[in-house]
Amino acid sequence: DAMVIQNPRYQVTQFGKPVTLSCSQTLNHNVMYWYQQKSSQAPKLLFHYYDKDFNNEADTPDNFQSRRPNTSFCFLDIRSPGLGDAAMYLCATSRDSGERETQYFGPGTRLLVL
Amino acid sequence: RKEVEQDPGPFNVPEGATVAFNCTYSNSASQSFFWYRQDCRKEPKLLMSVYSSGNEDGRFTAQLNRASQYISLLIRDSKLSDSATYLCVVNVPNDYKLSFGAGTTVTVRA
């Protein structure tokens, strides 16, 4: 009964080779988020969508892009992965944008860059 | 100053013990607070939400101190399965976003 699904769970890519991570949700939530989490660090928000409205964080590198073709799916594209992009990538959703909204996380995709 | 700060630990406690730790936040206008649990190499999962002075769920109690801008989490009668990293999460006022602490690691030993 997974509600936020991420594929693949593990991704190995080569330095500079584009990679796409996938997230889907069965909750019909309006907001979808992408976070990057490195070992022993807090999750770092990369960007989020409220419906189709895209919101990029100021310090998210241009190397990271996102697409949300419909309510259920959201993709993270890393155009030219570097060694420093190796991390866990977490997708999350929330029903709406209010201050009391809970975010629900998918299981994450662990990216390894060789 | 970081928006959310936590003692990283680790807190090593025997089964059955009580363990408590704090989280401080910088934005006095924050209204919603969350404790998430994250197991090694897994995703964060919501443990509890705190909107007023505190919340209790079984062996877990969260207390909010707005004057001093900290939230605490207390775990009573610790179980081996409580071993995890506990993330303190605070809403960013007037925004969709959440600010995450780096987590406090708790290890419960037999």
The percentage of residues in β strands of chain B lies in: over 45%
- Radius of gyration from the alpha-carbon trace of chain A, in angstroms: 13 Å
What is the chains' assembly state?
heterodimer
Provide the structure class of chain A: mainly beta
User: What percentage of amino acids of chain A are in beta strands?
Assistant: over 45%
Percent of residues of chain B in helical segments? under 10%
Q: Would you identify the regions of chain B where 5 or more consecutive residues have pLDDT less than 50?
A: none
SSE run of chain A? EEEEEEEEEEE
Instruction: Outline the biggest β-sheet of chain B.
Output: 6 strands, mixed
Distance between the termini of chain A: 34 Å
The outline of chain B comes out as globular
Helix content of chain A: under 10%
What do the pLDDT scores of chain B average to?
Answer: 93
Largest beta-sheet characterization of chain A: 7 strands, mixed
Number of strands of chain A: 11
Low-confidence stretches of chain A: none
Radius of gyration of chain B: 13 Å
Query: What class do helices, strands and sheet pairing of chain B give?
Result: mainly beta
